[in-house]
Amino acid sequence: MGVFTYTDEHTSPVLPARIFKAAIVDSHNLMPKLLPDAIKSVEFIKGDGGAGSIKQINFAGGFAKHQIEELDEKALTYKYTLIEGMGISDKIEKVFYDIKFEGSADGGTISKMTTTIYTHGDFEINEEELNAGKEKVLGLYKVVEAYLIKNPDAYV
């Protein structure tokens, strides 16, 4: 098994608690509303959204299952593993995400996401695939951020 880890950082003018509530805690409600063409629905097939829950995201072209490892609303941390569906293949066993939202000096947010990809055998992730995945995550983040900026009373 191969293991490949990388960390991304993104800044936002929105307060950390608002982004956490919108992008993480209420994502099952918010994401299908904001991106109806891409995300058809999000449902918990096990649990209620806390640790041990399994969340299924139904996309226009497939699905992904996330096993929630930790959701800490005080520390603003979220850890989950992509266990099935889009992103998993005969080459990729699972993908673990560790996300933390922190306050920045200017009153906004610094979000840090560490991604660990577990591959079968000696399979290497190429830079192009990696960047495509990063762009999708950043795109989702930007949609939530734009919504929160436009709706200052949402998720306060």
TrEMBL record:
GO molecular function: abscisic acid binding; protein phosphatase inhibitor activity; signaling receptor activity
BP term (GO), one: defense response
Pfam entry (one): Bet_v_1
CDD domains: Bet_v1-like
Superkingdom, natural source: Eukaryota
Coiled coil: none
Domain spans labelled Bet v I/Major latex protein: 1-150
SUPFAM superfamilies recorded: Bet v1-like
GO CC, any one term: nucleus
Family the entry assigns: Belongs to the BetVI family.
Name the UniProt record assigns to this protein: Bet v I/Major latex protein domain-containing protein
Species per Swiss-Prot/TrEMBL record: Tagetes erecta
